[in-house]
Here is the input.
Amino acid sequence: MSMSDNTQSKIIQVEQVSRVYQLQSFAPVHALSDINLTLQDGIFYAFKGRSGSGKTTLLNCISTLDKPTEGTVTVFGESVSQFDLETATNWRRLHVGFIFQTFGLTPTLSAYENVEIMLRLNNVHPDERHERVVECLDMVGLKQRANHRPHELSGGQQQRVAIARSLANKPSILIADEPTGELDSKTACDIFALFKSIVQIEGLTILMATHDPLADDYVDQIINLKDGRIIE
Ligand code: ADP
Ligand code: MG
Here is the structure.
């Protein structure tokens, strides 16, 4: 494989993607209309736009949680929009980390266990597991809180645990859907700064949906959506 092929394969390509939701006897909803995008590796992207503009649908079509009605999504050379359900699940487990507005931690598990569970799911050897859990908690500044359960942590700390968990399997892409929606603006900025440093440390790509203008100072590139289309 030549150098240029290598470079070519480390991009996310969204080509003529539309997503129409057709609920019985209602008018169809055009969540995405003819989206074309090329996303580079190692970049922190923000997808912005009002509620209902299609941010979540676009992220889901890239991460394989959803499928375009038309068009294709290619991630690092793989045509992910053609995957069947099982292939998609396995691919996500290996390549994608998810962070959501509501953190999604397991309340009965400690911070440590919440991170470790992802490595168990991928059958990582126990010795290696321990090392990676500590490394990930350290990256988000929570090594000292390893034994705390989610309810013993602040919202910002809980989101940091969720970020550590999303990093556990060394994904190539982090998908963060409104990650600061439940946080105050100071804490939100701390999270944006953390994402920025993670892109540098881990060399991965972050795709973040947000309508927080404070994110602008931290991201590498902003993509604006309106009514399911990209606008300048
Ligand atoms: P955002 O994340 O920017 O708020 P979404 O991608 O969630 O936007 O939604 C885009 C549009 O698609 C909205 O009009 C929304 O109501 C619609 N939509 C999203 N998911 C579904 C679904 N599962 N069924 C029907 N309509 C949906
Ligand atoms: Mg959304």
Observations:
- The first strand starts at residue 11 and ends at 21.
